Amino acid sequence: MRDGAQQEGLNLSVQDKLHVARHLDDLGVGFIEGGWPGSNPKDTEFFALAAKELELRTATLAAFGATRRAGLRAADDPLVAALRESGAPVVTLVAKSHDRHVELALRTTLEENLAMVRDTVEHLRAEGQRVFVDCEHFFDGYVANRAYALEVVRTAAEAGADVVVLCDTNGGMLPHQVEEVVADTLSVGARLGIHAHNDTGCAVANSMAAVRAGATHLQGCLNGYGERTGNADLVTSVANLELKLGMQVLPEGALAEATRIAHAVSEITNYPPSARQPYTGVSSFAHKAGLHASAIRVDPDLYQHIDPALVGNDMRLLVSEMAGRATIELKGRELGYDVGDDAERLGRITERVKAMEQQGYTFEAADASFELLLAEEMEGARPSYFDVESWRVLAESSRGTEATVKLRAAGQRLAVIGEGNGPVNALDHALRQAIEQLYPDVARFHLIDFRVRILDQGHGTDAVTRVLIETSDGKDAWVTVGVGPNMIEASWEALVDALTYGLRRHGVPVGTA
Amino acid sequence: MRDGAQQEGLNLSVQDKLHVARHLDDLGVGFIEGGWPGSNPKDTEFFALAAKELELRTATLAAFGATRRAGLRAADDPLVAALRESGAPVVTLVAKSHDRHVELALRTTLEENLAMVRDTVEHLRAEGQRVFVDCEHFFDGYVANRAYALEVVRTAAEAGADVVVLCDTNGGMLPHQVEEVVADTLSVGARLGIHAHNDTGCAVANSMAAVRAGATHLQGCLNGYGERTGNADLVTSVANLELKLGMQVLPEGALAEATRIAHAVSEITNYPPSARQPYTGVSSFAHKAGLHASAIRVDPDLYQHIDPALVGNDMRLLVSEMAGRATIELKGRELGYDVGDDAERLGRITERVKAMEQQGYTFEAADASFELLLAEEMEGARPSYFDVESWRVLAESSRGTEATVKLRAAGQRLAVIGEGNGPVNALDHALRQAIEQLYPDVARFHLIDFRVRILDQGHGTDAVTRVLIETSDGKDAWVTVGVGPNMIEASWEALVDALTYGLRRHGVPVGTA
C-alpha cells in the first residue's frame, strides 16, 4: 500500500487503507506494507488504527522506513522510534546499496552507510521486530560497484535481516540481467527478495526471473499500481507462480478471489481497472470468437492459457458482460438467498444484472444494491419504505446547498427541506429528516463516502455517471450504486437504496410506519 | 493494425487505418500488417486505397491471410487470390502448427495441413510476393507435439517463406520457456520471428527472450493493443532492443518520435493512453521528488533508467504532499519560471503549496492549477479573464439541471443560463456560453473527466470535497483542482481554473476582450 500509493494521482485515506488491507488479506498475501509511520500523520494514524481495528487472518503488517540517519544512534533516531512504536510485527527498512546514491543523496561515506544498515537492523531485531531490508537501486548499484552492493546485502543479513530485497528502483532491467544478478548475489548466503518496476514492461517477468534464480520473496502491488510505470502487478505475479511455475504461494482457493479483489480495490482507489490487465481484466478471457466458436465450444482450453475460473474470471464469447449464472447463484447464497433452485428465475436475474452492468452499474462494489435487486426478484417487489414524489436541489455561490424532498410514507405526505455542503449531502439530509419520525433508525445512518465517475470518457455531455455511496450506521457500512446521465439523479438512486438497505438490515418491516 | 484491431471495442475506419499507417511509417517500422483483404470489404478497400494514396518511406505493407483451404489448389482459392491481388508486397500467412487445432478447427489431416502451407507459400512466391508464415499456437503446439510443430516451420521455410513467426497465440508462455523453444526451433534452419501476447504480463519480455535466443523479426502493436490482454507493445519492445540490448532497429532519430506517435494513435483509436505505459506514458518519468529533489538536480540519471528525451518523453516532478523548496524550484523551471532566484518568494510559494495541500488540494494531479498559482506569485496577480458575480444551480427530479452564471468581463455584465446533465456540466455550459463571444477559444474546450472525492477530515457533513476536472481543447488536456466543504463550490473553482488556464495556454492576453 505504500509503494502503490506512489502512483501519480492516487490518494488513499486512512479508512481506504484499512479497506485495502482487508482485501489484501482476503487474497492471502503474506505481508502488507502499510505505510511509513513517522513520515506523515496519516501513516502514523493508520498503524495506530490498524493495531486496534484490523484483524488479519493471513497477512502480517509491515511498517516501511529508512535506516537511521548518519551520525546518530539507531535508538536515538526519532524516525526509527516511530517504526519501533508502530506496533507492526515486521519492519521493511530501505537501505542505499548504490555507492553514488550513498554519496549524493545521503551525503555520507560508504562505511557509515554500512553502519547505518547494521545498527538499525540490530536495534529493531533486539526490540523484537522482524526486519526486511530493501536494497534501493540494487541492480544499478551492482553494475556500478558490485563489491559494495554485495557488502550491503551481507551486512543486512549478518545483522539479522530475515530477507534482503533487491530493488530495481529505476526499473531499467530485463529478465536475463535480473536472473544473472540474483544468482550471483545468492553467493552472499542471504535469503533474497525481488522488488521490480515496469519501466521496460518487464516487472512481472523480472520477478519471475528472480524467483527462478532463487529469490523466495516477491513484492508487488495490486493492479500494478506504483510510481511511474508501476510496480510488478501482484495478481499477475502470483498467478504466474501458482499456475505456470507450480508453486503454491496463497492459501488454498484464494487465487479464485483475485478478480473480485482487484476490481474492488480499483473502486477504492477510484482508478478504473484496465480491461486488458492479465488474469483479472474484463477482456482478458474475451474472445471475438467468429471462426473458432464451434472449436471453442468443443474444447475451450485450446483457446485460453488457463481456466479463467482459477483466478475468478470468466471466459466471454460475445459482447455480453461477465456476470454468469454460477456467480449470481454463489453470490445469492452468500447473502442468504437460494437463487439456484429455480432455473428460470436464475436466468432472469442473470440477464437483468448483465443488462444493468452494460448500462454502467457495478454490483461488485455495491453489495447492498445487489441485495435489494435479489430481494426484489425473490420476493416479487422491491422493498420500499416510502414513495418519492419529487426532489429539487438549489445551490448558490457563497451560500450552502438546499434540497427539497416530497414523498409519501405510511399514508402521510411529507415535504421537507435539507441543507448540506453539496447536492448529495443536502438530499441525504432532507430525505432522512423526512422519514426520521416514522423510521427512527435512519438517525443513526450517515453518508461516509461517495465517489463519482464519468464512464464514457471523452464524450463530456452525453457521458453516463456512476455514483457509489457508502453509508454507515456506526457499526456496519454498506455501498449502493446509482447510474444515469444526470449525476444528481444517479446520486438520488444510490441514496434511496442506501436508506432502504439500512432499514431492511435493521430488521424494520416494510410498511410498519 | 490487424491484430491490434482485435482489441475489444476498438474499431478503425479505412481512413483511420491510413492515418495509423502513416504514423507507424514515421516511427520507422519495417512492416505494417494492414488487414485481411478478402475477409471483409473494409480491409479490401484499405489495400486498394493504400496502393493509390499511401506513400511509405520506411515501411512495407503486408497483407494478412490464411493458407489455402483443404482440398483446393492455392491458385483456385478465392481468399488466396485476394492476397495475391491486394497489391501488398508482403503476405503474412497464418498456418496451424498445433496438431489438435489442425484436427479440431481445420478438420483436416496433419499431412494436408503441411501441403496447404507448402502450396500457398510456393504459389505466392511464384507470383512475386514475399511471404511471412505465422505459426499459430506454435508454443502450445510445440509442447503437445514438438515434431509436428517443427515440421510446419520446416515446410514453410523450404517452400520459400522469408521468416517463420512463432506465435504464442494464447499468451500463456513465460520468457524462459520462449527462449528454450526458440533456441531449439532454430535447428530447423529457418529465420524466425516472435509474436507474443500479454496474458502472463510477459509479452515484451517474451519478445526479448526470443530475440536473445536468435529470432530476427518481432511483431508488436502500438500501445499494446490487441485481443484479450493485448499484443507486445511495439514502442516498449523497440526501445528495449535499442536502448537496453544495443540493437539499432529503427532509422536514426525515429525513436525520439515514439511518445508523440503513441499519443497521436491513441487519439485515432479513441482509447485514452495509459499514464503508466512504459517509455511513452505521461507518468513514466514522473517523480514524487520530496526527499530526493536535491539529488535529482545534481544528477537526474541516478533516478531514471534512460534519458526520457530518447523516446520523446519528459521528466516531470510531481508536487506532492512532501513538496519542498527544491521540488517547487525544479517544477517551476519545468514550466518555464525561474522561481529559484528569489529565496523569499520561493519560501512563500512552498509554504502556500503546503498549506493548500493540507486543506486537501493535490497539485500533483493538477498541473494546471499549480501553474496558475505560480503565475500569480511570479506576476503579482492571478491571471483573470472575468470577474464572477454569482452562480446558481437548480436540479429537479425528472428534469435536467440548470445553472445561472453572472459575471463581468471586458466592461460588460453577462448573465447566462446553461443546462446539463449535472451541476458541474450545467455550470460549465453556462460559463462557457457567457464568455464565448469575448474569448472564442473556449468553444474548443470541453470537459472530458471529473472526479469527486470526499476527504476524511471528518464525517459526512463536515467533510471536505476535492474535485479534479480534466479539460481538453482537442489537442492537449489539462487538470485543475478545487477544494471546499461544498462540492459545487469546489467544482466551480476547478472550472474557473480550467478555462483560465486554457485561455492562457492559447496565448490569449488577459484583458484583451
Automatic annotation (TrEMBL), chains A, B:
Record domain Pyruvate carboxyltransferase: where: 1-260
Keywords for the protein's UniProt record, in alphabetical order: Amino-acid biosynthesis, Branched-chain amino acid biosynthesis, Isoleucine biosynthesis, Transferase
EC number: 2.3.3.21
UniProt pathway: Amino-acid biosynthesis; L-isoleucine biosynthesis; 2-oxobutanoate from pyruvate: step 1/3
Name this polypeptide is given: Citramalate synthase
Xref: InterPro entries: 2-isopropylmalate_synth_dimer, AIPM/Hcit_synth_CS, Aldolase_TIM, Citramal_synthase, LeuA/HCS_post-cat, LeuA_allosteric_dom_sf, PYR_CT
CDD domains named in the record: DRE_TIM_LeuA3
Keyword Transport on entry: no
